[in-house]
Amino acid sequence: MGQLIIPNEIFFSHIMEEITAGNSVRIPSKGNSMLPFIKPTKDEIELSPLNENSISVGNIVLAKTADNGYVVHRIEKAEPLKITLRGDGNLTVRETCNASSIFAEVTCIYRGNKVIKKTSIIWKFAKSCWFSSPLLRRIYLGIYRRIKRL
């Protein structure tokens, strides 16, 4: 079966309608920016409506960035007027947005028959212990990418 390619604006406007209606939405992952936690083409992510705790450091959110792109990245810093986001697989690249540009929170990852929930130990480890040091992050990602090629 072939793929249907939908422009991001149309795709995400539908996603946001569902989220606004209070529904969770499950979508395929795309891109390498959240490796190793979210794997492209292998994982699906569940986007859920925001709650009072969603916009906090370590949470993974769907946001529209200042350059009008959509990203699913982890919150690195939450200030009143600026939210800084970074993908787990990004060494230095960061995006910024304001809180009103965050539309949903990732609450679950589906990897084949495995389900990784936001309440799981793996998730909590990634949230609190993912390397903030660029050197440690570079070393870990380098090892991960080499192992992945084997």
Strand-helix topology:
Layout: H1 8-20, E1 25-28, E2 43-48, E3 60-64, E4 70-78, E5 83-86, E6 95-97, E7 102-111, E8 114-117, H2 121-129, H3 134-149
Antiparallel strand pairs: 1-2, 2-7, 3-4, 3-7, 4-5, 5-6, 7-8
What can be said about this structure in brief?
The chain is an alpha+beta fold and 150 residues long.
Question: Can you characterise this structure?
Answer:
- This protein has 150 residues and is of the alpha+beta class.
- It has one domain (8-149): Umud Fragment, subunit A.
- Helices cover 25% and strands 30% of the residues.
- It is built from 3 helices and 8 strands; from the N terminus they run αββββββββαα.
- Strands 1, 2, 3, 4, 5, 6, 7 and 8 form an 8-stranded antiparallel sheet that branches.
- Strand 4 (70-78) and strand 5 (83-86) form a beta hairpin.
- The longest helix has 16 residues, at 134-149.
- It is globular, with a radius of gyration of 15 Å.
- It starts with 7 loop residues before the first helix and ends with a helix.
- The model has no long low-confidence stretch (mean pLDDT 89).
Supply the CATH superfamily name: Umud Fragment, subunit A
Q: Uncertain regions: pLDDT < 50 for 5+ in a row?
A: none
Q: Give the number of domains.
A: 1
- The count of DSSP E runs of length 2 or more, i.e. the number of strands, is 8
Order of helical and strand elements = HEEEEEEEEHH
Tally of separate helices = 3
Could you give a short account of the major beta sheet?
Answer: 8 strands, antiparallel
Radius of gyration, taken over Cα atoms and rounded to an integer in Å: 15 Å
End-to-end separation: 29 Å
The overall pLDDT, averaged over residues, is 89
CATH C-level class: Mainly Beta
Structural class, by secondary structure, is: alpha+beta
Helix content: 25-40%
